[in-house]
């Protein structure tokens, strides 16, 4: 395998911290035009949350005082079609060396630590240690080999994540902006219409 092929294979490898960006070929309405942050990937399957589908429901309406530490917009996000009756919180540590009770790191990137917060933990044990918190209703899940098949079929672009994507105030333009910052031809897809006949 040549260097270019190895680079391409690495880019298609999904790991915690990767972003899945739906391609125009993605027809599942749960995922059309989405950006998914991967939180857990192993031989048994994968789990992530959709970053660009805010709901109109305030976090405080559902989880009380957790709304006080949620990052703007302080609403629940539709994290995916699995477990929609539950909530999953993704947070960033203010100090990577200060990991509070109820926090589980899932991705470390250049000194920034992102993880999952246990919403049953007392807020006072966690809140002072976080620089960002986003709450998701539901998540996206894949069985073993399922996601690999979707990537191979061309349903997803796999790109490196950036912690700033998780806590954006304006998630509506996230997909376009993520594609725009990619190298080479992938950046061109940021302006591609859903229907190529409209190009």
What does it look like?
It is a single chain. This protein has 199 residues and is α+β, with helices and mostly antiparallel strands. It has one domain (3-198): 3-Layer(aba) Sandwich (VC0467-like), CATH 3.40.1740.10. Helix content is 19%, strand content 36%. The protein is built from 6 helices and 10 strands. The protein has helices spanning 3-12, 59-63, 123-126, 146-153, 163-166, 174-180; strands at 18-22, 35-42, 45-50, 54-58, 75-78, 82-93, 103-109, 112-117, 130-143, 156-160. Strands 1, 2, 3, 4, 5, 6, 7, 8, 9 and 10 form a 10-stranded mixed sheet that branches. The longest helix has 10 residues, at 3-12. The chain is globular and about 45 Å long.
Total helix count? 6
CATH class descriptor name: Alpha Beta
SSE string, helices as H and strands as E: HEEEEHEEEEHEHEHH
Average pLDDT over all residues: 89
Uncertain regions spanning at least 5 consecutive residues: 1-11, 193-199
Specify the structural class.
Answer: alpha+beta
Radius of gyration: 17 Å
Q: What's the CATH H-level superfamily name? A: VC0467-like
Counting copies of identical and different chains, the oligomeric state is single chain
Can you tell me the overall shape?
globular
Query: Approximately how much beta-strand content do the residues carry?
Result: 35-45%
What is the second-level CATH architecture?
3-Layer(aba) Sandwich
Please give the alpha-carbon distance between the first and last residues: 36 Å
Number of domains: 1
């Amino acid at each position: 395998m040549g260097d270019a092929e190895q680079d391409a294979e690495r880019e298609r490898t999904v790991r915690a911290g990767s972003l899945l960006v739906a391609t125009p070929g993605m027809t599942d309405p749960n995922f059309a035009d989405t950006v998914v942050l991967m939180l857990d990937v192993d031989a048994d399957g994968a789990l992530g949350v959709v970053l660009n589908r805010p709901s109109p429901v305030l976090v405080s309406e559902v989880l009380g005082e957790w709304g006080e530490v949620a990052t703007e917009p302080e609403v629940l996000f539709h994290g995916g079609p699995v477990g929609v009756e539950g909530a999953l919180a993704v947070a960033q540590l203010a100090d990577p060396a200060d990991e509070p009770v109820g926090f589980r790191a899932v991705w470390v990137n250049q000194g920034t630590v992102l993880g999952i917060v246990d919403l049953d933990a007392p807020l006072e044990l966690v809140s002072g240690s976080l620089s960002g918190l986003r709450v998701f209703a539901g998540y996206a899940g894949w069985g073993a080999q399922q996601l690999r098949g979707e990537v191979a079929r061309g349903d997803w672009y796999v790109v490196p994540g950036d912690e700033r994507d998780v806590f954006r105030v304006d998630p509506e333009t996230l997909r376009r902006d993520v594609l725009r910052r990619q190298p080479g031809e992938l950046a061109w897809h940021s302006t591609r219409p859903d229907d190529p006949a409209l190009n």
